[in-house]
Amino acid sequence: QVQLVESGGGLVQAGGSLRLSCAASGRTFSSNPMGWFRQAPGKEREFVAGITGRGMSTSYADSVKGRFTISRDNAENTVYLQMSSLKPEDTAVYYCAVSKYNIMYRRPSDFDYWGQGTQVTVSS
Q1: Beta-strand relationship, 118-123 and 92-99
Q2: What gap in Å lies between CA 49 and CA 40, rounded to an integer?
Q3: Is 115 exposed, middle or buried (0-12, 13-18, 19+ CB in 10 A)?
Q4: Of 13, 35, 22, 37, whose CA–CA distance to 85 is shortest?
Q5: Among 91, 123, 112, 121, which Cα is nearest to 35's?
């Protein structure tokens, strides 16, 4: 049974940092791109960052570019999201997900395994 478990969320002041982790179990995903998404109350789930299977290429939403860094450790079957210079508008539930395809896309429908989410709250 495939399971993704996010951790590392919490409450932080604006300008602070957090590091999210997503541990996968049940199978290895070293050939699959993985992504981080977020969903704020009343808003649609949106792409935040993605990384290819071997970690050679990354992609970011414009809103987080230069502040967030995605990485992965395939030996540990884990993907990370380092978030810096956090803003109140980054407040959301953050989800990790595994792509259905070997090419990295950005639509939630292109991902088929999801974690339960971790809350990130940034106070002003």
Answers
A1: antiparallel
A2: 16
A3: buried
A4: 13
A5: 112
List, for residues 47-80, the tens digit of each pLDDT value.
999 999 998 999 999 999 999 999 999 999 999 9
pLDDT band at 1 (very low <50, low <70, confident <90, very high): confident
Which structure tokens are listed for 104? 């990295």
Selection from 85, 114, 123 nearest residue 5 by Cα:
114
* Distance between CA atoms of residues 18 and 96, nearest Å: 15
Whether 48 and 64 have beta carbons less than 8 Å apart is answered as yes
On whether the CB atoms of residues 37 and 45 are closer than 8 A, the answer is yes
Cα dihedral 96, 49, 94, 8 sign? positive
How many other C-beta atoms are found inside a 10 Å radius of the C-beta of residue 16?
A: 14
Q: Spell out the long-range contacts of 40-46 with Cβ–Cβ below 8 A and sequence spacing 24 or more.
A: 40/91, 40/92, 40/93, 43/92, 45/95, 45/108
Could you tell me if 52 and 103 are in contact, meaning their C-beta atoms sit under 8 angstroms apart?
A: no
